[in-house]
Design a protein that fits this description.
46% of the residues lie in helices and 21% in strands. The protein has 297 residues and is α/β, with parallel strands linked by helices. The protein has two domains: 142 residues, Rossmann fold; 141 residues, Reverse transcriptase/Diguanylate cyclase domain (Alpha-Beta Plaits, 2-Layer Sandwich).
Amino acid sequence: MSTDGHTVRSVQRILIANDQEWTARSLESILAAEGYEVIRAFTGNQAFERALDSQPDLIVLDTQLPDISGPEVCRRLRAHPAIGWAVPIILTTAGSNGRSRMLEAMEAGAWDFATQPFDGPMLLARIRTYLKAKAVYDAARAESTLDQGTGIYNRRGLARRLTEVWADARRRREPVTCLVISANAPEIAPALDRADTIASAVVRALRACVRGSDAMGRLSPLDFAVMAPSLDRDGALLVLDRFQNHLHAIRAEGGISVRAGIATIEPVEGANADQLLQRAATAVDWAATERPLAVNE
């Protein structure tokens, strides 16, 4: 099940990155016996890729991997928005466990440092504690109404706010307009890596040209919606013009191109905010065949 882009699993998943077969199998057998799903990696690059692909709940990295050191993999994972700082990472070593090694692990972003051979019961106790902390974080994130990267509503928050906006519009018998902005960088893979940077630029530009009564939300990493009561289509086009000018002024690194869709609907019996959002999103897809609003340096 996925909630606002975050996966919730019934079985917790642990990634082990260690090129020593006996050590890795030993740890895998301990974790599997406790009911955890285990994924293996044998190099630093493989660990990084499998962490992004599998979204584990906890990662165990050996410090001495064949290609990239465990601390370096840890730093890269911490810097990537798909992992960030919420996933527990334990660095392990079969060599020296002196103060300098431990300090390196902590500075790389590890939650803990363990030595091999493992003390099974002690390691399991640590893992259980870290996984409980991760579960609490995941639950809080799943219930959050704000997007962490930008501070505006996420899809859940926008849906709740729309209930209020829609009710007020029906009482006043005024239309509600939805603007959906879809941002794209020149290359999609780098764009996803810097999605939060692009999102922040888009939100800054939107904040500068929408009203306090408008509800802004982030629908996906690079898609945004503005629900604007008492705004007609001509007014929405003026907002888009101001938005484009503000985005030009920000001059986001690498340039940003956007497509926009507009839908306006009267809050009459039988109509609802979901229909409005869907119509605007459909208009964005149609705009993909037209000339986009290009914002470049």
